[in-house]
Structure formats: C-alpha cells, structure tokens
Amino acid sequence: MEFACGFVYVPPALSQKIGQKSNVNKRSALLPPVNRIRPCRPPPPPPTNSAQAKSPKPLRPHPKVIEQLEKSKEVKKAVKSTVFYENAEFHNKTEASITPPRSITPPHTTPPRRTALLPPHMKLSSTNQTPPYSQPFNPSSTNSQEFTYDLPKNEPDLNASLWDPNYSYITPEGTGGEVKLPSDTNNGQSAKALVPPLPPRPSFMKSMPLYLVLLPTPQSSSSSPQKTDSPLIPSPTSKDKGPLSGNPNVLLVSLGKLLSEERGQTMQGEPTSCSQCGSVLDSGHENLVKECYFCRAWEPQSPVTGHRDGLFSLCPDETPLGDDDSLLLFCIDISGSMSITAEMSDGENVVHRSRLQFVQEAVLQCVQRLSQQQPDIRVGLITFNYQVTMHGNEIFTSHSLSGPELIESNFLKEAAASFPTPPPLSQTRDYLQKQVMGLSEGGTTALGPAALLSIAIASRQPGSKVIICTDGKANTDLGNLEVEDLDAHTLLSSTIFYQELGLYAANQGVTVSVLSIEGTDCRLDELGRLADRTGGTVVIASPNKLHSEFENIIENRTIATHCTVTLLLPQSLRMRGEREARHKVIREVGNVDPDTEITLQFGASEQDTEVLAPASGSRVSIQLQIRYRQRRGRMMLRVITADRDVTDDSAAALSSLSLAIIQLNSSQASAALAVRGRFLDARREGELQRKLIERAIEHNSSAEDHQIYQEWVKTMEPIYNNIHNFTRRKSVDSDSQSLTDAGAALLYAMKHSNRKSISLKNKQKL
User: Fold this and answer.
1) What processes in GO biological process is this protein linked to (predicted)?
2) 309-353 confidence digits (pLDDT tens)
3) CB 526 within 8 A of CB 532
C-alpha cells in the first residue's frame, strides 16, 4: 500500500485541542482555590491592656508557611512577625473586649512602579467550615482555623519597598468607608481621574504586593508606534503554514500488484486476531486477543507489534481447482433495432452495414484470435430478442426460452444449470463461427433474462466473464427499462433487479461488462450497475471500433475473486467517504484484475469531541487486510501493517504529497458520489481536492506537475462544471436526476480508473 502523504496530517486546530484537553483541570496560580470563601472581615488584633494579659500568647508562624517561603528562590520572607490566633481559645474568653486596630504608618517613601499581582492565596488548614462571613462576627464560635499563604513560584520580593504612609489599611473591606489613594508625584490629578479607587486590604496581611497603574504614555501613542518582541502577538500566517483545504491522508491499494506478487513463505491457517476489531497482531498464540492497539482509546503508546507483511493460506486442507477453465460468454442483442445501418468506408467505396453485422464481425475476430492464443478457453454464445437462446455445438443442441419462461428468476437459474458447459474453443471454433454468422435481427429486447442466464452459466467457474452487447433499452417484463415515464413502480423493481443481479454475479466471481453502440439509449445508469458491482467495464463504442473494445475487455484477465479489503486505524483517526465514519472500514471489491487500484481516505475526527486527535510528533499504526480467492480456488489473506508519523505542519505535508494518488482518489470519490445522484457532494469533493493539488504545485514549483494537473482538470470538467450535460430530466418517482448513457459511461469509468488509465487519457489529449 502507498500513502499520498509522507505523514498523517492533522489540522493545527485539532492538534491544539490536545493541549486544551490536558489542561482542563489546571488553574492559574493567580486565581483563588476552588470552593473557597474569601474572608470579608479580619480577625481581631492582639490585646493591649492588662485586663487581657491572660489571653493566649501569640503563636509563631506556622511551619508550613516557613517551608514554602524557604523553597521560594526570589521571596526572602513574606511574614516577619505575623501573629496567629487559635480562635477557639480566644473566643471562649467572653469577657475580652475588642479594641480598634492600630493604624500602621511605615516611614514615608515613594514606592516604585511594579507589575500588578493578585494577593497570595490563603488555604484553610482546618477541615471544619467557618460560619458565613455575611453574618455578624460571633466571638463564641468554637471553630478553629488557620490561614497559610500559598505563594506562586518566582514571586518578587514583596518587602523590598516600603509602604505609602498616605494609604489607609484600617478600613475593613465592604464597609463603604473613605479610602485614601497613594500619592503619585508623576501623574498627579490625571491618575486620580482615570483610575478607580483601590480596594482596602485587611490589617493582618502586612506583606502585600503593590498594584501598578498602567497609563498611556507618549511613547505608546498611535502616532509613534513602538516595536515589541512580545510572543503574545502572533505573526501573520503564511499560505504554506495555514490548514489545508483538502485531505492529504489518502491510501492507495494496488490490488492487482499485491495479489500477484510471488512470496517465498506462506503461513498456514487462520492467524490470531482481536475478538473486537479483527486486527491481526501475532500468529504465535492460539487464543483470540481480547484487546489490541486498534481497540484502545488513543494515548501516547508504542506502535503495534506483529506482522509487517504476512500471507496466510486460510484453508490449507482445501483441494485446489484444476487448470484455468474459465468461461467467456458473449451475450448479443439481436432485436429489431440492430438492423439500423451506418455508413463506413471500404477503400474508395462507402458501404452500409447494420449494427448486427458490425457485432458479428467483431465477435468472429475475437474467436479467431482466442483459438490461436488460448485454445483451452471455453467460449459460449447467448442471444436475445423476444426470446433468449443458449447456443450449442456438435455435442448438444441449442435451447431457447420465451414468454412466461422469461419472467421467473428462479426458473431461469434452473434452466441455466441444466445447460451443458461449452467445451474448449479448440473443439467448438468452427461451429461457433457458423452460429455467429447465422444470426438475424427482429423482435423486442429481453435483456434482463438474457443477462441472468449468462451470469448463471458463467458462475460455474469463478473468474469467468460475460460481455453484454446491446443497442437499446430492455423492454420485456423482467428488468424493463423503457417505462420510466409511465410506470414508476416497474422502473423501481427493475432497478432492484439489476442491483441484486450484480451482487449475485460478484458473489459467484463473475465479471460483467456492458458494451453499447454509439448513438443509442440503453439506460446505462441502471444497466451499468452490473459492471460497477463486478469490476467490469461500461463502454460506448462506435460500430467500427467494436472489435478493439471486445479485445480490451477480454485481455483484462481476472486474477482473484471474492476480494474484501479491510482497513484498521487507531481510535484517534476516522475513515472518510465511507458509509460509516469509524476507525474500521470493510470494502467489498469482488473481482480483481492486474490494473485494479482503490483509494481510501482517513483523518482525524472533526466532530467527535470525546476522541482526541493524535498529537503532532507522535506515531500511529495502520493495518491493511486483503482477503481473496485465487483463481484455483484457495482462500488467502494478506496483512500489511505500516507506521506513520503525525504532523500538523502544512508545509511538510505539501512537500511529501503524491499528486498522482490525490488525483486518482479525487476521480474515484467524486464519480462514486455522482453515480448515486449526489452531484453537489461530488462537485464539493472534487473542488476541495483540486485546491489541495493547486497548493501543492505552488509550494513545490513543479512545471511538470502543473502540466499534468491541467490535463487532469479537463478529465474532471464534467463534475466541476458540466454535470448538467450528462443528466436527464427528473425521474417520475423522485426529484433526483438520472444520468445519460454518455454520463454513466464516463462516471463508471472514472470510478474504476487507475493511475495508468488517467495517464493514458492525459497523453491522448496532448
């Protein structure tokens, strides 16, 4: 597997949430403790007369205070002779009288201007709660409490400067008394006019920080701005530093390459897997793993250990099938519309040939080439008009079904099971060519029953192919596509029929391709579901190019069937563009050919607030599991685990971006939305990835990438601007719009495109 980006990119906004989440319980050192009531009244002063001589002696500062002050590097000592009281003993002395606190008048000194700080925190050393401070002070209260200072680190020396003698500290807080402001010799009356009164402080708090009043100065005016190196002011963000508009987290899985690689060692049996998510970690244990790296919620941890790249044979005792004897069935339309002629040049002459004649010539050329290159291949012929005919050979005769026999699906499957398997082409070539040359057109188009019979016959051998060639809409009861304007119920049942038929073919390992003739209307948006589900091709060809299109379909050999791709991410990441945006996705691929490539998108969740995105600089593990059946019938499992670094640096992501993978993903994802009728979502998806590609080209300054991008934009033009040119008018059963044949063929081709096909299209346009 290949990653479009060298990192797992997480937008800066999501990576910053990690720090915010981790600091959610932290409080600033300047804020008071939680659930603490600040006292409104100071404790009483010490006794001064002889009547109070028997009152308790003042205690020395609490050891906790001394320990905290000694640990501080810059604070020498916050309290020199602070007096503490044991309130319980003091308040039991009911005869003690309270005298007003003495005014403290330190020597007159002008204090220097200092940075504003909040008062030191006070914590109650006793677990008992004090009475509410809003009530009058009750001396008889028996609650005992002590206050200790909780000083922040790096606190400046609070006793380095003396107090202002003009400031009064004797007025209790909240009494509404007059407050005297400190004198300011510099600003005078302007400071008093601009600055509100400072709150008074309790008298028992002697060491208090001074407040600094920050006033505008001539140097800070707008006329003469002053430069500052403050880190709090963010610098303008450059374009390469901002968040990316698209999603660079794209994974490319080249299934054709991975499944065809020759490996030396294959482990036998089912590997040990997690019982919750199914991740494969180690094959050395017999029991299932109950919890693994991918199941746990994200946390800084080492990446997953186990298989980096392992191949398992899931059923080692299973007997493999014999040599490749897959089937190739031509399902040809011989209805009345196939008699329409078209002009073509034959040397200097212009001749008219019917559509059926063009088809006959193309099939004969394919049979001739296959008889030379693959004589053991088994080729069959099924034709349909008002009836469906399974053509035989010298060994068994042909068999036709018509009327009520073409209505019931189960009857058609039973009829297909009773029809013999065609012998190798080396034995039937001459008879098959005679059958093709003897075809004649006429009647209606029983395409639905013919497709079901062909798939049922081909299902005997996984890896078989069915090529349906038609020039019109199916118009018999089963799978009728000609009644969209008259009967919505019939159209809905036909849509369900082709969806279920495509699922049936994929489960049987059959690849179905649909080839229509240019200038016709076959409702490929519905009929193409067969090809879309089975990994086949939807093609519109001109009559004189039918042979080359047949050859391309035949040469695209199936190398594996029943393929299922599983991607496992850690809980901190989520899938994008899938039906379920979880950390695990299972995609049914079905049949795989050598050029099959799929892309997957993932990234950090932007809506899940409970799961944190991975932090920038961390490392995550991603596991890919590919379960498939080989052509000889053996079930295999390949497990690949990769580790990726996480970053929120947009420039680093752009520098390591693979534009080819991003372009392929944009084509596949947009086309997948458009074929389901979600045209606005398809356009939005294409626009986001186009902006990402443009930004990467600008960042890397690559002229070659710019040229490739310009050609790719032309391929995406229908989705960007002209999707209305490929849609019909609204359907009768809903407000959604269906696709024209040209639109369906284009979008189905884009959905199953690969890097090779995109490169060929770009070269053809050049």
Assistant:
1) COPII-coated vesicle cargo loading
2) 888 988 877 766 655 678 999 999 999 999 998 888 777 788 888
3) no
Output the pTM of the full model: 0.69
DSSP 725: G
Report H helices in 105-203.
189-194
% of the chain residues with pLDDT over 90: 33
CA distance 37 to 42: 13
Which residues touch 172 (CB under 8 Å, ≥6 apart)? 40, 41, 42, 200, 202
CA distance 489 to 732: 10
CB atoms within 10 A of CB 533: 22
Stronger pLDDT, 229 or 766, i.e. the higher one: 766
Residue 281 exposed, middle or buried by CB count within 10 Å (0-12, 13-18, 19+): buried
For the stretch 446-474, pLDDT in tens is: 999 999 999 999 999 889 999 999 998 89
Long-range contacts: 719-722, Cβ < 8 Å, 24+? Answer: 719/670, 719/671, 719/674, 719/682, 719/683, 719/686, 720/683, 720/686, 720/687, 720/690
Could you give the CA distance from residue 586 to residue 607 in angstroms, rounded to a whole number?
Answer: 22
Tokens of 53: 């001589």
Bigger pLDDT: 192 vs 67: 67
DSSP string, 404-419: GGGT-HHHHHHHHHHS
| Tokens at 731, concatenated | 């359907």
Phi then psi for residue 335, to 5 deg, are -70, 175
Overall size of the chain counted in residues: 766
Q: How many CA atoms lie within 13 A of 441 on its CB side?
A: 21
Average pLDDT, the chain: 75
Cβ neighbours for 10, distance < 8 A, ≥ 6 positions apart? 603, 604, 613, 614, 616, 646, 647, 648
Taking Cα atoms as reference points, which of 463, 454, 473 lies closest to residue 381?
454
- Cβ contact 8:614 at 8 Å: yes
Dump pLDDT digits (tens) for 494-553: 889 999 999 999 999 999 999 999 988 898 988 999 999 999 999 999 988 999 999 999
User: CB under 8 Å to 227, separation ≥6 — which residues?
Assistant: none
Element (H, E) at 622: strand 619-630
Q: Give the per-residue pLDDT at 464.
A: 93
Token reading at 739 = 């696709």
pLDDT at 746 over 50: yes
Q: List the one residue out of 366, 253, 370, 267 whose CA is nearest residue 315.
A: 267
- Phi, psi at 109, each rounded to 5°: -150, 135
* Dihedral over Cα of 487, 489, 492, 496: its sign: negative
Angle between helix 679-700 and 703-715 (nearest 10)? 170
Domains and CATH numbers, the chain: 1-24+247-322+559-646 (2.60.40.1670), 40-165 (no CATH), 327-555 (3.40.50.410), 658-766 (no CATH)
Those residues with Cβ within 8 angstroms of residue 29's Cβ, 6 or more apart along the chain or in another chain? 152, 153
